[in-house]
Fold this protein.
Amino acid sequence: MSGGLTHRLHRPGDSPVHRLPAHVKVLALLAFVLVVVATPADAFAAFAGYAVLLATAAAMAGVPGTVIARRMVVEVPFVVFALLLPVLAGGPRVDVLGLSLSESGLLAGWNILAKGTLGVVASILLAATTDARSLLVGLARLRVPARLVEIASFMVRYADVVGDDLRRMRIARESRGFAPRHLGHARVVAQGAGALFIRSYERGERVHLAMLSRGYAGSMPLVDATPAARADWLRGTALPAAAVVIAVATWALS
Amino acid sequence: MHVPDGFLDAPTSVATGAVAAAGVAVALRKAQDELDERTAPLAGLTAAFVFAVQMLNFPVGVGTSGHLMGGALAAVLVGPWTAVLCLSVVLLVQALLFADGGLTALGTNITLIGMTTVVVGWIVTRAVLAVLPRRPACVVPASALGALVSVPVAALVFVLLFAVGGQADLSLGALTATMAGWHVLIGIGEAVITALTVSAVVSVRPDLVHAARPLRAPLRLRRADGSLVDAEPVAASRQARTGRRDTRSLLLGGGVVALLLAGVVSFFASGDPDGLEYVAEDEGFLDTARDHAFGDFALADYGEVGGIPVGLAGILGVLVVVAVGVLLFRAVRGRSSARQHEDAAR
Amino acid sequence: MTTPSLQVSGLAFAYADGHQALFGVDLTVGRGERVALLGPNGAGKTTLVLHLNGILTGGAGSVHVAGLEVRAGDRERLREIRRRVGIVFQDPDDQLFMPTVRDDVAFGPANLGLHGATLDARVEAALAAVGMTEVADRPPHHLSFGQRRRVGVATVLAMEPEVLVLDEPTSNLDPASRRELYDVLDALAVTQLVVTHDLPFALQLCERSVVLSGGMVVADGATADVLADEDLLRAHRLELPYGFDPRSVWR
Ligand SMILES: Nc1ncnc2c1ncn2[C@@H]1O[C@H](COP(=O)(O)OP(=O)(O)O)[C@@H](O)[C@H]1O
Ligand SMILES: [Mg+2]
């Protein structure tokens, strides 16, 4: 489902959004999406407001709509589910274009579609404006356990290397005329996966030796990270704060 | 199966977030026992590996394909705790760097994919290993079964979460049946790829397969007359025996729970009168869908197929799973003993 | 006489699977010396290298680094040894494990307790020494193979080691990268042990060569003399490139 790291979403740039420290952005994203998720499904105006907020942020960051649209495919399985809900759900029904659809199902489908889409777009914005390393530093600043950040850092570093290994194996197979057609061919592919695991694990062992050789004694040295300035926090909270305002306003007006 | 934002309501998302955080915290501590200070590089490389093999697709039918989740595979290869860390990190990175899986749903995704598939895959694998002969090759069928069971169980946990925090007036029975049926199919693909991958590793570096470690041949001593006897390391033998008893009881308990669950869930599944069948008859919609998707699976809709009572269908399902596992084991054993003969003949 | 940078005596070692790789190696490398360690595949070169900073221990014999004996279990001592011996591994993808070049070069000195401006200065100096300052903020994966090799050297230089040990530094390098690497190494004043089967490279860089074969030192002398000994080379599966005559090289 997830494309390789070749499909990296990051687009280098120097917009105000790019310049925000990663941990501020992650917290802002989390707060924003939480507000979105907590909004009742029938507050249609609020969702429109959130969409405008995201569009503004995207424009500020200089992330083109096409980039966002292309990445939104990750949502597809759930879009299908959302579209089926009006058909499958129970309760009172309404007639739409000759189809008898469930009222609650329609609302639930819309709920998933709207919130999922807003969430994906917000996440794409984070991914597009933050490079992997800043993100790791940001996670460390958010007090994510150091060991977990280290594992993530090794994963990010070696995902390309392992992915390249996988790609080379596939090319080697295909240049010798192999074309997987049915599950019976899984054996060949899985043997490749087995070899890939051995390679990866052995590389892990060699990396460990290389780390030991440079004085590693069980914990990684802290990557420096200057704390976020108050101005950064203010800018970072702009998005979730505006979302809260919208949520409260629609609730008050309804 | 990366759950997006908004699929479950906010309280459920927060609750699964707490569950995930607790699970990862325990895994962090326990993984040190599995990998000591090599945890970071080895788990990191394994995470990169899982990330790569998750791109492996396999056909499920009706022109759609599933992709490997890798929970059971990782558990068998590097042990359950490290696997929980690896899968969680993969999900974290996918959510933050690839916008794959919502950030508020990260806890849900870690609970489902990072923990449920790993834990179920591992327990089933260990349980099967406990009844098979103690040889590294047995890890192959055991892991197949672990992978096969792990996927539908994760789907059922998903249904459970949806029942609590889903925001649709959906017949849970229908949802359970659809998800379970569909994910049994995906589970078969997962099982095939997992077993073949594990088998490829076991044949070259059995020492790298965590689940196969207790199965290694014991050290042997050569007697004066040239005969070989097993060396009996004093401290280890006692541990091995208690370990064995532990897995026995684990197996018994696990089996009973599995059968109970299967019975209860499938009863629940068809307990709702206006469930899937109702809609299907009414709309003529799912009939076709089901025919395509589930093919000729007799038990696919967990209902009264051929007069088989409801709960029994689920129990039968578990038994079928066990039978498939035994057959797989036979096949693998046949192959490996044939290979041994070949080697001997050379 | 000053204490030699490296002193290996009677070193023997068997891997856990029982395979014995070293059978009593004696080797002394004086301070400031550049020595090539030649030998066919499987000779035990990498095994020897891993003993020089105490990654492998537990066999017979001893290793001293600038007078300090490598002892397993003594964490403080190992730390000091690993500061003194910098190893550049064969595969730069093993050597460079951090998200960016800068982080990677900083990893070693940071483990030594350096931080802040001192750390930054070390990193800059090491990158400048290999001419890689401009790639500091890029991920290692985006560099060419030759660049990664040079950054690998920088990661070790940043620890200001007493001895620089390079395991097959020219493997997989194109001729231009190989020459650039030569320029980098030739400009360094530090003691160097260069493991290689690139014989012309050894001749170019090192006055002295040691041949390791079957886990033992079978020759030790001036590189020009070692490479001129055809019988020796043939007996230990070492081959000069076609048409290369070590006696005709002007040094
Ligand atoms: N981890 C290991 N376990 C067992 N044997 C090993 C291991 N690493 C290397 N060997 C064996 O030790 C011998 C020396 O290997 P190595 O030092 O890597 O050789 P070189 O670097 O000279 O090519 C070889 O026969 C190799 O197969
Ligand atoms: Mg070597």
